[in-house]
Design brief:
Layout: H1 8-26, H2 32-48, H3 55-58, E1 62-66, E2 68-72, H4 74-81, E3 102-106, H5 121-134, E4 145-151, H6 159-168, H7 181-187, E5 195-201, E6 209-210, E7 220-221, E8 226-232, H8 236-250
Parallel strand pairs: 2-3
Antiparallel strand pairs: 1-8, 3-4, 4-5, 5-8, 6-7
Helix pairs in contact: 1-2, 2-5
Amino acid sequence: MDKGFYSSDQISAEAKLKKYEEAIKKLSQGDPLQKTLKHMMIPWKLEASLWMKNPECLKKSLQITINMVHRNEQINIAAVCAGHQIIMCDNEMVNLNNQDYYLLVPMQGIETPFGVYERNGFGKDFQTIVENKWGKKLDKFPCKYVAQVYRRPLLANNVLQFWEELEQKGLFDFWDPKGGPVKWCRDHPNPHLPILRVFEIDRDLRSVIDYRKVPGFPPFLTGIGIRAKATPVLTDEEFEQQCNSLLDIFKKPKYKLQY
């Protein structure tokens, strides 16, 4: 890499990212420290993404039109934007059309219309990381990530066991199963679990997002038909690997997930 092209801040961020990656490789599979380091890397991945993109992702860049905003818990938004997870608990992301892109924005605070869902130990630690990086309301978070809904399975049976398995496998690892996703499933009839393909766009849209002051109402774009260049956060291979790990669980007869 030509160091003269980058600022000292960029070089510092890249060095820290590589340091964390090297540390992770030295840890054994399943070690709790491995998960902690992965979580610590998420802000660095987002910060470094513009100038460390995988060439395979760059080959898949495309021009898109954005008409919708989607809001979710802060730690979920940060995790999916960095490619750490590809699912969220959400009944509002309904469009399976490949031309539909949701601009991902974090909630301004951790309160939801249904109260506060419980984070596990990793989730509490990651909440602190997120707040230290972008503020408690995530007012500094870059609103430059969009998502397509790849699949939208509906969860039916053995809800607690399902979420415990996802937590154990590291596929949804910030939430206490009983106080988080299981409670969410009770709060929402017909709970859907959208699988998301996430892209980074070439502009930050914070200036065109209007956060309504009425509790429970989602934010919206002050303009429509916003054009942007979008690049996948994960390569096709990385996305398929995560997706297949999820589908292996989703397809188990005891859960009876419907698509």
